[in-house]
Design goal:
Blueprint (H helix, E strand, L loop, with lengths): L2 H20 L1 H26 L2 E3 L6 E3 L18 H16 L3 H20 L5 H9 L16
Antiparallel strand pairs: 1-2
Helix pairs in contact: 1-2
């Protein structure tokens, strides 16, 4: 949130307090208007930060990172085809067979950094994250084999 806009609403509230000595009703109106303006601004900013999108098929709201609508199953973005994934896996397996133990350790460290970044950048509380995981909103590794069949 921009502190400048909130500061302006607070200045208006102080002006409204001063106006009450001159005209009680006008002062109250200025205070009320600035309070309502502040609430609307904060609410709009909070809603923009939620990163929700609506499904074009059923109109349900879903988180921005979700690829499939939880209500109707509409696919927002096309995923990679199963054949392409298998080809990539085969190529990666060939690369992995040629790695040394130092390279494997380095790769594990990179994965650990990535996971820590993802966990710390999660925009919400952990209970919400776990609820989404239990409802199937988050794929775990065991669910990856099901992705190509959707």
């Amino acid at each position: 949130m921009k502190a400048g806009k909130l500061y302006c609403f607070n200045v208006l509230q102080i002006v409204g307090l001063g106006m009450q000595f001159w005209n009680w009703k006008a002062g109250c109106a200025v205070i009320l208007g600035s309070c309502l303006g502040e609430m609307v601004y904060i609410s709009r900013t909070a809603l923009k930060n939620r990163k929700l999108k609506s499904c074009p098929k059923c109109g349900a709201a879903a988180w921005g990172k979700v690829r499939i609508c939880p209500e109707c199953g509409h696919q927002y973005e096309k995923g990679i085809g199963e054949e392409k994934i298998l080809d990539q896996l085969e190529q990666e397996m060939e690369k992995v067979d040629a790695l040394t133990s130092e390279e494997i350790d380095y790769n594990f460290e990179k994965v650990e950094e990535f996971v820590l970044d993802e966990v710390t950048s999660f925009d919400g509380d952990i209970a919400e994250f776990l609820d989404r995981r239990e409802r199937g909103g988050i794929c775990d590794i065991s669910d990856r084999r099901k992705v190509g069949g959707m």
